[in-house]
Amino acid sequence: MERDGIFAGDDPFEIARQWLTEAEASEINDPNAVALATADADGLPNVRMVLLKEIAENGFVFYTNYGSAKGQELDANPQAAMVLHWKSLRRQIRLRGNVTREEGPKADAYYASRSLKSRLGAWASEQSRPLDSRATLMAEVAKVTARKGPNPPRPPFWGGFRIAPVEIEFWADGAFRLHDRFVWRRETDDESWNIQRLNP
């Protein structure tokens, strides 16, 4: 099967990293913005934009409040799907797989790399829960600032999620809607990928 140019290689994580690097040079805002789809315990789907923070050797990692709607949905049903779409490059990557929490030193390091206001905001926001006014939120930020000081630790309710894909599809726009699509599939992390070209 012919796979050259932007599709060349046998490691889909490396191809995804290369595409993201190219997008960083061409996308105006947030080239790492992704649509994340989850489902609750009853199977009702939900989708929202989040920022992808790492394409690791075996997963795609983002961070959030574990008590948020997405955090609760992933705890109840630890499977998710994600789409990275770059309009400037006319490319997208779709993936789906199993989800685990990204906690410990990696989460601590990422949290510490964020701006102080973002770190304090993570403590102050009860993400996804009702809020009566912005003034209430800002008052909570002030209280947290006074309590936690200039170097707050990572909250125990805040950290990462890693999607370990069982399927990754790379799509590139083609003339007359004759797009190029290749999908990598496997059932477990220790299996080899099965690679297949798909009809547009």
Automatic annotation (TrEMBL):
Instruction: Report any one BP term from Gene Ontology.
Output: pyridoxine biosynthetic process
Instruction: Report the Pfam families cross-referenced here.
Output: PNP_phzG_C, PNPOx_N
Give residues annotated as binding FMN.
R48, M49, V50, L51, L52, K53, Y63, T64, K70, Q92, Q127, S128, W171, R181
Q: Where does substrate bind?
A: K53, Y110, R114, S118, R177, L178, H179
Cofactor annotation: FMN
Q: What is its EC number?
A: 1.4.3.5
Domain of life of the organism in this record? Bacteria
Task: Answer yes or no on keyword Flavoprotein.
Answer: yes
> Which residues constitute the signal peptide according to the record?
none
Question: How cofactor binds (record note)?
Answer: Binds 1 FMN per subunit.
Q: Which InterPro entries match?
A: Pyridox_Oxase, Pyridox_Oxase_CS, Pyridox_Oxase_N, Pyridoxamine_oxidase_dimer_C, Split_barrel_FMN-bd
What is the enzyme's main class?
oxidoreductase
Domain Pyridoxine 5'-phosphate oxidase dimerisation C-terminal: where? Answer: 158-200
Subunit record text = Homodimer.
Task: Report the family membership.
Answer: Belongs to the pyridoxamine 5'-phosphate oxidase family.
Q: What does this protein do?
A: Catalyzes the oxidation of either pyridoxine 5'-phosphate (PNP) or pyridoxamine 5'-phosphate (PMP) into pyridoxal 5'-phosphate (PLP).
The molecule here is called: Pyridoxine/pyridoxamine 5'-phosphate oxidase
Q: Which gene encodes it?
A: pdxH
